[in-house]
Every structure is written in C-alpha cells, then in structure tokens.
Amino acid sequence: MNLKEMTTGEKLRTMELLWDDICRNIGDLSSPAWHEDILRAREKNLREGSDRFIDWDQARKDIWDSVS
Length: 68
Description:
By secondary structure, the chain is mainly α. It has helices at residues 8-24, 34-48, 56-67.
C-alpha cells in the first residue's frame, strides 16, 4: 500500500506492528549516542518535578484518540 494513500490510523497501526517485530528481534541493536543526552534531560525533569511518568496503555490511548 502506498503511504500517501494510508490514513493516519493505518500508518500508526503499521508502525506499531513494525515496532513490535523489531522489539522481538532486536538482537545486537545499540542506541545512538544522542539517546543518552535525551535520557539525562528527562531524568533531570523528573527529579525537578517538571515531568512525570504516564502509563503506557493510557499514553497509547491518548495517541489513538488524538488521531481518530
């Protein structure tokens, strides 16, 4: 299917399927170096109270609701 013909919902479902498959077959995939910078910034925000954790099921529902 052509990406331009896919709805946003179809693209998200496809992306989720791809991500699930990658996670199951991750092997020796390493993160890029810039990931550490982002993680450190997020940890700092959590410590300072300017950010918070959100349940993954709720986050996914919020994403789906925003594009439906």
